[in-house]
Write a structure and sequence with these properties.
This protein is mainly alpha-helical. The chain is built from ten helices and three strands; from the N terminus they run H-H-H-H-E-E-E-H-H-H-H-H-H. Strands 1-3-2 form a three-stranded mixed sheet. A hairpin with a 4-residue loop joins strand 2 and strand 3.
């Protein structure tokens, strides 16, 4: 996995038998198992302050995040900054994750240093949170469910925009967006589940078409902020259009 990749993390549950060897990705998020620090102690750390400031900027100004927050609110899952986001130190290979046990989005304060990166991580993880809200996702026992959400997150969050791929020295030809989505979904599964690459690839391939074409709540693949703004505007107008029918 490349440095700073956003993944969807694990959910806490009792482990026994075969599950003892699988921590469901929590090894990547060591602060999940630590006793909560007081606000005063946490506020002394520069990383934490910077993370909180960038998070606020994302939630206030980023159209991807704003659309997802509104969609979750309409689905009965209102997101609160202090309750549903947590800035923590993580393993060096990840930038964030969604902890379904606590309905919290983990933001890796030691790995997120730019606002554009924060925007992508928050969007990626909000897509997982949205899926968790609207569907009965079996994050632990059904790798196809995890694969589907990872496909949607890679497809709709901006992870695979042309500029991001160029920054990774990957220059796309026809169909490159789909290739990027598939590859990143597989990488994310392998980061948080102890499954073989073949099993991850099989799960992604089996659900790819249906999940790639599930564009909720955007209604389109937002390849840029302009696309996301249009999608947000259209989403806010859905109820008005229905009321006029």
């Amino acid at each position: 996995m490349e440095q700073g990749e956003a993944v969807s993390p694990p959910v806490t549950e009792e482990k026994s038998g075969e599950e003892e060897d699988d921590d469901f990705g929590y090894r990547l998020f060591p602060d999940r198992n630590k006793k909560s620090q007081s606000f005063l102690v946490r506020s002394l750390f520069t990383f934490h302050n910077k993370c909180q400031l960038m998070l606020r900027m994302t939630l206030d100004t980023n159209p991807y995040a704003q659309l997802l927050l509104e969609a979750m609110k309409q689905s009965g899952c209102t997101v609160f900054n202090d309750r549903h986001f947590s800035c923590e130190n993580c393993d060096g290979c990840v930038s964030g994750g969604f902890d379904s046990a606590t309905s919290q989005i983990v933001l890796c304060q030691n790995n997120i240093h730019q606002q554009s990166h924060m925007n992508r991580v928050v969007t990626h993880e909000l897509i997982h949170a949205f899926d968790h809200c609207r569907a009965h996702v079996d994050w632990f026992n059904n790798v196809k469910h995890l694969a589907c959400s990872e496909i949607r997150a890679a497809n709709l969050s901006g992870d695979c925009t042309l500029m991001n791929e160029i920054a990774r020295f990957k220059f796309g030809l026809k169909g490159h967006h789909q290739t990027c989505v598939r590859d990143r979904a597989i990488r994310s599964i392998l980061a948080v589940r102890k499954v073989s690459k073949e099993m991850a690839e099989k799960a992604v391939d089996e659900v790819f078409d249906a999940c790639f074409n599930d564009l909720e709540p955007f209604g389109r693949i937002p390849h840029s902020k302009t696309d996301a703004k249009r999608a947000y505007r259209d989403f806010k107008n859905r109820d008005r259009y229905s009321a006029n029918l």
